[in-house]
Design brief:
The protein has about 725 residues and is an alpha/beta fold. Helices cover about 35% and strands about 15% of the residues. It has an 8-stranded parallel beta sheet, with helices on both faces. The protein has a 7-stranded mixed beta sheet with strand order 12-18-17-16-15-13-14, sandwiched between helices. Strands 9-10-11-21 form a 4-stranded mixed beta sheet. A hairpin with a 3-residue loop joins β22 and β23. The longest helix is centred in the N-terminal third of the chain and has 20 residues. The protein is elongated. The chain binds 4'-deoxy-4'-aminopyridoxal-5'-phosphate.
C-alpha cells in the first residue's frame, strides 16, 4: 500500500438514519377529496429535493384505503369506521417499517395522523411526545364537532378521547403532558376546553407574534422530550394563506413558512426526534407547485443532516486544504446567516468582501435568475449582449480605457501580471523573458503558482515550487525599498492599497503616492489589487482614492460578483491593454452573460443604495466605537470604512480562539495571521447591528480568559 492509500475510511455510523417515506392518500376525514391526491402529487419533486440532502430517503409506498370511501353524506359512524380502518392500516404499515429507519408520513388529511402516531408508538413500544403544528386544535370528538369533519378530531383521538373507532386504533395513547400545539388560530371552545383539561400546552398565533416562533419551538422541545423521543406533525393549514395560496384554513395570519422552516432546523441532529408527518397538501389548489416547493423546504429543514454529520463528510471526502470554523451554514439573508441547526449569526466576514451587498439581495437574485433563464454562457468565441455594456460601465466608473473580464481574483491578478510582463517585453523594451514583478511582504494576491511565488508566507509556498523567475518582494510601506528594488527590467509593482489577508494593514500616509511617483519615474506599472478593498469596502469606490493615486492597472473581484458568482476584471488604459491580441489570453467563463448581468446589477446596488458613502459613515463611527474598547488584550484597532482589524496583544486568547468564542455568540469573524480579528460586514449592515457586534466584542474583551470548548455551538442563541 502506498502513502496515498485509496481505500475509503469508513464514516462514523448512524449519523443519518435511513429515511423511509410513506404516503397516506386519504381524504376520508376531510370535506374535500383533494388531499387524497397530495402524496402522489408531492412524491417525485419531494424525493428529488430530499435526496440531495439526505441520500438515504426512500419513498416506500403510498397507502390507499382498502375499501371505497363512504359517500359524503354517510352517517357519522360509517365515516368514523372508514377513517378508523384506514388509520389501522397505516399504523400497521408504519409499525412494520425497518427498525432504525426514520419514518416520514406524507398525508392525506390530518385524520391520517391517528394511524401515523399509533404506528410510531407501536414501533417504539410506548408513546412519543408530539408537536402538533396546526391552525386548528383538531380536538373535537363526534359528540362536539360543529362541522362533522373527522379531520378536526385526530388529536383528541390520539389522546384517547372520543369515538372508539378512532380512539381505540391499536397502539399506546399520547401523554398529554408531552404534547403541544403550535400555531393555533382557529378553534372552538369544546376543543380548547378538552386540551386545557388534559393539560396540553397550546402556543397560539398571538403568543407566536409576541415571542417569536424560534423561542416557542425551543419551549415545545422541552415539553415533548422524554422517553421514546418525540415527533412532529405539520398541518399545512398552520401556514399563512398569503404566503401559501393552497392553505385551506381561511383565517388570516398563519405562521410564516420561512419562520417554520428555520424553526424546524432545530430538529436536525437530535437523536430523540423520531418521526415527521406533513399533511393537508391540496394539489388542486396549487397548479404551479409553489406550495409543494415549501413542503420540500420544510422537510429538508427537519430531515437534512446536522453539523457533525456534514463536517464529518467534509473531513472525510474533502482535501484538507481548509480548517473551517465549526459551523455549517444553510441559508443567508442580508447580513444574517443561519446554520443547519437554526442558529443565526451576524456575518462580519462577508466571504472576504465578496458578499459586500449582503446575502440573497433581491435585486441581484432577480438579475441572476432572469439572465440564467435567458442565456448563461456561450464562451468568448462569440459576443453576447450583456458584456459590452458592462465593459463600458466599468471603464466609465473607474476611469480606464479598457477592461478584461475574468472570474476569480487570482485569475485577474494573473491577467495583470501577464499584461505587465508582455508590456515590459513588447513596449518598455525589456529583453525577452527577463521582466520582473515586485510585490510586498505580507501580500495576498491569490493561490496560483505564479502568485504564491510572490508570497512571503511560507505556508502558501511550501512544496509548490519551483516558482517562475522574476518575482521580487519589498517591505510593505517602504517606498525607498521599492525604488531600490527597481531595475531596468522591472515591469510592475503589484500592491494592495490595504493589506487584507496580511492583517488589515494600512500603508503609512503618503506611501502609495510616493510609490506612484517612483513607478512613473522608472516607467514601471503600478498595479493595485483592489479585489478585496474595491467597490466601496473602505468608504471609497477604490481604496487607492484615499491616497489620491490613479494606478496604471486595477484588479477587481469578489464584490463584483454580487456574492453570487465569481466575477473579476483587470482594468487599464490602451497603453497597457494593447499588448493582448486574439488568442494570447482568455477564459471560457470570463465575461459570460450571466456574470456580466450580475456584475451590472451589483454596480446598480452599489450606486443606488449609496453603499460607498454608507461604508464611510458607518465605518468611521464604528471604528471610533471599537477604538474605545479598552483591554490589555488589544494591541490596535485599525481600518478604513467597513474593513477593520483588531490586532490582539501577545498571549491568550489567540485570534482563532476569539473567533470561535464570537462564533458561539452568533458573531462571525475570522482570524488572520494569528493575531488579527477581521471585521468586514456587508456594506448594507445597519447601525444597530454594528452596535450589537460591538457589545459582543466588548463582552469578549471583558472576559478573564475566553476559551473555546468542543461544545461552543451549544451556546449560540437560536433566533
Ligand atoms: N487579491 C486579494 C487582495 C485578495 O484578498 C484575494 C482573496 N482573498 C485574491 C486576490 C484572490 O481572489 P480569489 O480567491 O477570488 O482568487
Amino acid at each position: 500500500m502506498t502513502a496515498l492509500d485509496p481505500r475509503p475510511i469508513p464514516l462514523p455510523s448512524g449519523q443519518t438514519a435511513r429515511l423511509q417515506i410513506v404516503g397516506a392518500a386519504s381524504a376520508l376525514g376531510a370535506p374535500h377529496p383533494g388531499t387524497a391526491q397530495g402524496p402522489a402529487a408531492l412524491r417525485d419533486a419531494l424525493i428529488e429535493r430530499l435526496r440531495a440532502h439526505n441520500p438515504s430517503a426512500r419513498w416506500m409506498d403510498t397507502l390507499q384505503a382498502d375499501t371505497a370511501p363512504p359517500p359524503a353524506d354517510a352517517a357519522m359512524p360509517v365515516r368514523l369506521a372508514a377513517v378508523g380502518e384506514f388509520a389501522c392500516q397505516l399504523a400497521e404499515r408504519i409499525a412494520a417499517l425497518d427498525a432504525g429507519a426514520f419514518p416520514f408520513v406524507v398525508g392525506g388529511d390530518h385524520a391520517v395522523a391517528i394511524g401515523t402516531w399509533r404506528g410510531i408508538a407501536r414501533r417504539l413500544g410506548g408513546a412519543p411526545g408530539l408537536i402538533w403544528v396546526d391552525a386548528h386544535l383538531d380536538s373535537h370528538t363526534d359528540a362536539t364537532t360543529h362541522s362533522g369533519n373527522i379531520h378536526g378530531m385526530p388529536l383528541a383521538a390520539l389522546l384517547g378521547e372520543g369515538a372508539p373507532a378512532l380512539a381505540d386504533v391499536p397502539g399506546p395513547r399520547l401523554d398529554p403532558a408531552r404534547v403541544c400545539v403550535i400555531g393555533a388560530r382557529d378553534w372552538e371552545n369544546e376543543e380548547h376546553e378538552r386540551l386545557a383539561r388534559l393539560g396540553v400546552r397550546i402556543f397560539d398565533m398571538t403568543e407566536i407574534h409576541r415571542r417569536g416562533l424560534a423561542a416557542i419551538f425551543a419551549d415545545a422541545l422541552e415539553i415533548v422530550r422524554g422517553e421514546h423521543g418525540f415527533g412532529v406533525s405539520i398541518d399545512l393549514d398552520a401556514l399563512d394563506p398569503l404566503a401559501l395560496p393552497a392553505v385551506t384554513c381561511p383565517a388570516a395570519d398563519g405562521i410564516e413558512p420561512r419562520a417554520l422552516a428555520d424553526a424546524l432546523l432545530m430538529l436536525r441532529g437530535r437523536d430523540d426526534f423520531i418521526a415527521l408527518e406533513i399533511v393537508e397538501y391540496r394539489p388542486d389548489l396549487d397548479p404551479h407547485g409553489h406550495d409543494a416547493a415549501w413542503v420540500a423546504e420544510l422537510a429538508i429543514a427537519a430531515l437534512g443532516p446536522a453539523t457533525c454529520a456534514l463536517r464529518a463528510r467534509e473531513r472525510h471526502f474533502g482535501a484538507r486544504n481548509y480548517a473551517p470554523l465549526p459551523v455549517v451554514f444553510h441559508r443567508g439573508e442580508g447580513v444574517w446567516l443561519w446554520d443547519v441547526e437554526g442558529r443565526r449569526y451576524l456575518d462580519m466576514m462577508s466571504a472576504y468582501s465578496a458578499v459586500s451587498f449582503g446575502h440573497a439581495h433581491p435585486r441581484l437574485l432577480r438579475a441572476l435568475e432572469e439572465q440564467a433563464r435567458r442565456l448563461a454562457l456561450t464562451s468568448r468565441a462569440y459576443s453576447n449582449d450583456r458584456l459590452p455594456p458592462l465593459l463600458e460601465r466599468l471603464c466609465a466608473l473607474f476611469g480606464y480605457e479598457r477592461a478584461l473580464p475574468m472570474n476569480t481574483g487570482a485569475e485577474a491578478v494573473e491577467t495583470a501580471l501577464k499584461a505587465a510582463r508582455k508590456w515590459a517585453h513588447k513596449i518598455k523594451g525589456v529583453p525577452a523573458d527577463r521582466a520582473e514583478i515586485i510585490a510586498c511582504e505580507g501580500n495576498f494576491h491569490g493561490r496560483t503558482i505564479a502568485i504564491v511565488g510572490l508570497s512571503s508566507e511560507p505556508a502558501y509556498r511550501d512544496g509548490f515550487g519551483p516558482f517562475p523567475p522574476g518575482l521580487l518582494r519589498v517591505p510593505y510601506g517602504d517606498a525607498d525599498a521599492l525604488e531600490a528594488a527597481i531595475t531596468p527590467r522591472t515591469a510592475a509593482f503589484l500592491v494592495e492599497p490595504i493589506q487584507g489577508e496580511g492583517g488589515i494593514v494600512l500603508p503609512p500616509p503618503g506611501y502609495l503616492a510616493r510609490c506612484a511617483d517612483i513607478c512613473r519615474r522608472h516607467d514601471v506599472l503600478l498595479i493595485a489589487d483592489e479585489v478585496q478593498t474595491g467597490l466601496g469596502r473602505t468608504g471609497r469606490l477604490l481604496a487607492c482614492e484615499h491616497d489620491g493615486i490613479r494606478p496604471d492597472g486595477v484588479i477587481l473581484g469578489k464584490a463584483l460578483g454580487g456574492g453570487l458568482l465569481p466575477v473579476s476584471a483587470f482594468l487599464a488604459d490602451e497603453r497597457v491593454m494593447q499588448v493582448f491580441t486574439p488568442g494570447d489570453h482568455g477564459s471560457t467563463f470570463g465575461g459570460n452573460p450571466l456574470a456580466a448581468a450580475v456584475a451590472w446589477a451589483a454596480l446598480d446596488v452599489l450606486e443606488d443604495e449609496g453603499l460607498v458613502e454608507r461604508a464611510a459613515t458607518l465605518g468611521s463611527r464604528w471604528l471610533a466605537r471599537l477604538a474605545r474598547l479598552r483591554s490589555p488584550r488589544i494591541r490596535e484597532v485599525r481600518g478604513r470604512g467597513l474593513f477593520i482589524g483588531i490586532e490582539l496583544a501577545d498571549g491568550p486568547p489567540s485570534a482563532a480562539t476569539a473567533a470561535e468564542w464570537l462564533l458561539a455568540r452568533g458573531l462571525l469573524t475570522k482570524d488572520t495571521h494569528q493575531r488579527v480579528l477581521r471585521l468586514a460586514p456587508p456594506l448594507i449592515v445597519e447601525e444597530k447591528e454594528l452596535d450589537w457586534a460591538a457589545d459582543v466584542l466588548e463582552e469578549l474583551f471583558a472576559k478573564e480568559t475566553p476559551t473555546t470548548t468542543d461544545g461552543v455551538l451549544e451556546t449560540a442563541v437560536p433566533r
